[in-house]
Specification:
heterodimer; A: 120 residues; mainly beta; four-stranded antiparallel beta sheet; 0% helix; B: 112 residues; 9 strands
């Protein structure tokens, strides 16, 4: 059974960089059929797609975040990572990693999510 | 403002049927059969309930069904049960040159 697990600091100071890693177990991140994405959900609000990456390194980003986001993949560790720079309180959210098929873009496996709070 | 429009809330009694709508444009919902629906209970990660408009992943009860007409997709839950009370989100492939996947704003389902 495929499992995804987010890890990283739960508290980040304003203007600093948020860094999270998603570790994939029970399957290979190098599967040719799937992309790996990050989605976030501010407290009490809806879902927002942040970006997605293929194991080859090809990326897609939400244009509203593109200038601050970097998603990378490490196939040797079966992990992919998110960096979000210059964070503000508006970036406080539960961050999920998930797998999606292409081209349908339905997210079929999700991590449990990790709350990241931006505060000094 | 979300790219896809969903009602903020719907409600129904146990045993009844409810339908949640998800309205987009010809660049997303209307143009492709790549609409998904997710169920999210409080404090939990979303769960895929419907993919490619009307397909159910293994393990999802057949009380959940999806459909699409024009630019509007719909999720129908029949034989409503207490455990169906949750938030539901739709999403869609989009051909927008800047976006990649769009979500609806979510619908809170209350089982009375």
């Amino acid at each position: 059974q495929l499992q995804l697990q987010e890890s990283g600091p739960g508290l980040v100071k304003p203007s600093e960089t948020l860094s999270l890693t998603c570790t994939v177990s029970g399957g290979s991140i190098s599967s040719s059929s799937y992309y790996w994405g990050w989605i976030r959900q501010p407290p009490g609000k809806g879902l927002e797609w942040i970006g997605s990456i293929y194991y080859s390194g090809s990326t897609y980003y939400n244009p509203s975040l593109k200038s601050r986001v970097t998603i990378s993949v490490d196939t040797s560790k079966n992990q992919f990572s998110l960096k979000l720079s210059s964070v503000t309180a508006a970036d406080t959210a539960v961050y999920y990693c998930a797998r999606h098929a292409q081209p349908s873009r339905d997210f079929d496996y999700w991590g449990q999510g990790t709350l990241v709070t931006v505060s000094s | 403002q979300s790219a896809l429009t969903q009602p903020a809330s719907v409600s129904g009694s146990p045993g009844q049927s409810i339908t949640i709508s998800c309205t987009g444009t010809s660049s997303d919902v209307g143009g492709y059969n790549y609409v998904s629906w997710y169920q999210q209970h409080p404090g939990k990660a979303p769960k895929l309930m419907i993919y490619e408009v009307s397909n159910r992943p293994s393990g999802v009860p057949d009380r959940f069904s999806g459909s699409k007409s024009g630019n509007t997709a719909s999720l129908t839950i029949s034989g409503l049960q207490a455990e169906d009370e949750a938030d539901y989100y739709c999403s869609s492939y989009t051909s927008s040159s800047t976006l990649y996947v769009v979500f609806g704003g979510g619908t809170k389902l209350t089982v009375l």
